[in-house]
Queue: 4 jobs
Job 1
Amino acid sequence: KFEVVLATLDRQIQMAENVMEIISTGITVIQTESTNQLTKLIVWLTVAATAVLVPNTLATIFGIPNLEFSYVWVIPVLIFSTAIASIITFRWTKQYRILPFGSSKLKRIKRKFKK
């Protein structure tokens, strides 16, 4: 009778280990999905921050008193630097193939603008 109880206890322990392994695998999958979503968000925030910070730094430099700059060329420099910084950052982050929506959708939007 003791061996029957021991065998039952052993099966219960094995079942508990299997359940814990399944739960652990499920948690790992959920954690991976969350990490991927956060990575996408961080990449796009990097692009947005670069687009804001580069011209902001230039505007700070141009805003120093006693620097007589003509706004005729300051504004184009700010616009050009914003565009270049955004393009470089986008190209750099594009190597990770992280797009906020699928690449097929992005290609369709691109085709619409080409027409």
Job 2
Amino acid sequence: MITAMAQSTLSKFVWWVFDRSLNQNLEQYLEDYISTDRGLEDDDARDIAVVLQQRSRGIIEYMVSRDSPRTLVILKMIGMPDLSDKFLNAGVTDMWYPFDDYLLRQIISDKETRRLFLEKQNLVLSRHMSPDPDRHQHLLHGDDHFEEKKILGSGGFGLVSDCHDILNNRQVARKLIPRGRTISRRQAAISADAFANELAILRRVSARNLPHLVTVVGSYTDPTYFGILSTPVADMDLGKYLEVRLFNNSHKKWYGCLASALCFLHGMKIRHKDIKPRNILIYKDDVLLADFGISYDWTDRSGPTTSGRPVARDPRYCAPEVDGWESRNESADVWSLGCVYLEMWSAFSGFEIESIRQHFRENGSRSDIYCKNREALLSWMAEVRGRHHMQGLSQWISQMLKEHSNERISAAGLRDRIRLQAPYYVGLMGCRCGDDL
């Protein structure tokens, strides 16, 4: 654990290293900004970050992160490089730009210093939305770049709407995660972490071009929101679809599609952690898994298991071990998808979703939360089984909804089971679902 005094001392040493170790070209590069007040383009920020990373041998990267070239430039401009430790302590990176006085007050207490910082900040902001999904934009007024057509939905972390990206002339789904004055300072930090986590996972997934997963096409920050842009723009979510009952025989393939999507995620060492009908989108005749706001990437960690109080969850679809704050892994996703399958199976068999809720409220523990009413779960499955001809589906769901996580089928095992059944139930696998991508 590094003390505050040690951090401050190291910060001063880092700037000393910066002034003496970086090549003359970069030093002159920064002096140009200070003397001419010309704007910092996104490419310039990336170049500075790369040189810092290459030259620092880990020291400058720690204090003036490669993710914070804008902070570096502004602090040099106003002649206050020693303030870098305050940004470090606040966990702030370039992702936070632009600031307003309310947000900056959390880092810099002196009013005049804040005024100078905000005055120079305009020189490091993006001028327009880039079509490159890997380029995060920093906009003074995000709404100026989009025409909002309609609200698509809202959740724990944000609001999703159908928008027209004006400059790039494309239709996108825009998720806005509040920041700044709209929420408390504590919630602002949580929102920033959730945004960074979701964006990183979406970029990983999108780079693989996997079927049945949404694709990120851009991101930005403005003083009020973090924004994530994705495609395609869905017609509706699965929850709404099951309510309006627009079924046809081709939709049997969705079982295989969703199993494949989850198999792809787990293969990339990602737990979704919030699978439910509202987070499954319907686009034309396809299903897509969306909303990675609380997902968990264990690529650089010891394994998929987490414990303690969940950050967020939908009680109705969460696994017993999640509800009980016990250790859980990717098997919790399988449980959640099993609950979704149960609702699909019921709706495709002619039952209304509300009839499931009513059955649970009238039987067993009287709870309509699946993991809290085992008796009602089993009796409901027996009722649907009597009306549905796909007996294999009943077996899959039973294996997905095992009370103990170590007894559940894996996502890969589920996909393989569906592959084996596909010749007997035509249409269970669609598009590239059966491929090992």
Job 3
Amino acid sequence: MISDTPHEPIEKDARTRRDVWVSGTWHRLPRNFSWIVPGYLAGISQPRTRDDICALAALGIRLVVTVMDEPLPAAFFQDTGVRNLVLPVRDSWPPTTDMIDHFFATLAALPLTDRAVVHCGGGVGRAGTTLACYLLKYGAMRPTPLCTACTNAAHDMSRAIRAPDCTEPCGNAVAPFMTPTAAITWLRTARPKSLETVAQEQFLKEYADVLWRRYACPGSDFQLVTGDGALRRNGQCTMPALVMLVGLPGSGKSWVAERLAARFTHVSQDLLGDRGACEFEVKTHPRVVLDRCNSTRADRAAWLALGKRPAVVVHFDVDLDVCAARIRGRINHPTLKSGRRALKQVVELPTLDEGFAAVYTVPSYAAAQELVDVLTGVSPPTANVASNGT
């Protein structure tokens, strides 16, 4: 019996699962569609039309996860009952830890009858890395629902991390299900060519370490939200070309940089490997967030000499002990060894007379969130407060 109901699609080819009966006609899905967890989580290449989204909706899919640097047109989703989660990742790059945490938090909030699909351009590189992270944590199975404490934490922080008061059974209280090698092997069997670059494979190993650290030390991620104090600003600049981050390893720089990725190109020496590559990226892109310690006036002057203007600087005024605790949680983070040494350094406070149009000071998680809103245009700048000299 043919049905048009969303949760009872008719598939013309059960092997490829590419032709779906929608509103009285067959529609071919984008290529590379396959279930990772049957009836719950799938992978696919980029949807190109609104009809593609309607066909996914006919399969019961209510969440489309876009792992690309550009979102799909909003018109694709209008009146379809499908929402779009965007994880802004450039081609050939891996997502970030926070992006995967946000992905898991969004999955955890789905009603039990809803389904999700993950895509990038071809459905194998960036999407494959995201799906491999799911296999790391849960295997090819539906996750155990989160406990109340972890559900509340996921809602408050948009990150699926284990709360200090987590109670079992809980999806965050289980050990990682697969090793990185097993996850890649499983995924490439189901979806050939998944994970296309060394960087994507390396990220999978690093995320596996994060999962094991969290399993061994429940609540350790909540050190990210310590501290208090409002965002402070000296100077004025509403549309900077360069956002220079200043602070010790573990102070929260990368957390902010990742959330600015929709408006700025994230330039991280940890990811690019050397200063020359960073300089090239700074010169090439119109709007850049520079994610380095940038602890001395001389170091900052060298970057300003590249001529990227107007420039603002963000100082992360975070307690040394908090930075140290965060670094201890980065088992294979590329800055681990250098980070320990850098904790002994003294940060020279940035000032306007270095050539910045504005100086922001971030003393807390709430201040970091406010900064992201200001620099992305979500909220107006804070009141001008002379806090770091002129």
Job 4
Amino acid sequence: MPSQSTTRPAKRLPSARSIIKAVDALAAIDERRLSKRQRFSIESNDATAEDLDSVSPVMDRYIAAKGVEVVHALTNFSASELNTLWANIKPFVTKNWSVGSGRKCPVTGKDMLFMTLVTLKHAGTWDILSASFDEGAATFSNRINQFIRVLHPYLVRKYIDEQGMKTAPAVSFGEKKTYFSKKHGLYGHKVEGSVAPNDLAINVTNCAVGSTSDFEMFKANLGFHSTHLEKQPSDTNVSANDALRDKFPSQ
């Protein structure tokens, strides 16, 4: 028996009137939505909103207020030097600072470096330092100390241990060992620097190979020390009560 084909009825198309009505309704909904949006500002009321995407909003604020020279004034590092240092430690800081479970530090890693360098240069009390960054003294000191504890092993590895190996001369062991300072654990040369009580360096000797003992360097520089230990005309009336006054009356 031949199969009977079934004819599906044609889908009823919307009329022009229903289309106009639907478009007008959707347009009205869109206008109401836009009207509601305009009641709210798209600008953030937070004064620091412009810094939200910055990797160092705290340091950027200092630069904006006092110029880029403020970085060197506060840290002894120029802005470019600090950026270079940050580029070197960023991978380590990213993996080890403010990670894991628990509350995260709201200060970025680069800002922590900036704040740590400021602290190390100026020292003083935690109250003064923390106020400079609008932080509580206890919170600020804990952050700085924790950041240093995290960063210290990496700095020792990268800037002391690795550099010590790089300075080993590429010569025979017998020649190389003359450059090794057992006291410092490094290869190279060393000098003796003389520092006055006011922290000013007043003399630096010529460099010597690392194996030269401190005593030998001091003996070679004995003339300088003896000259500067001599009493000046203004010191003649100063009484000396130490045990060596008879042996060294002019000093």
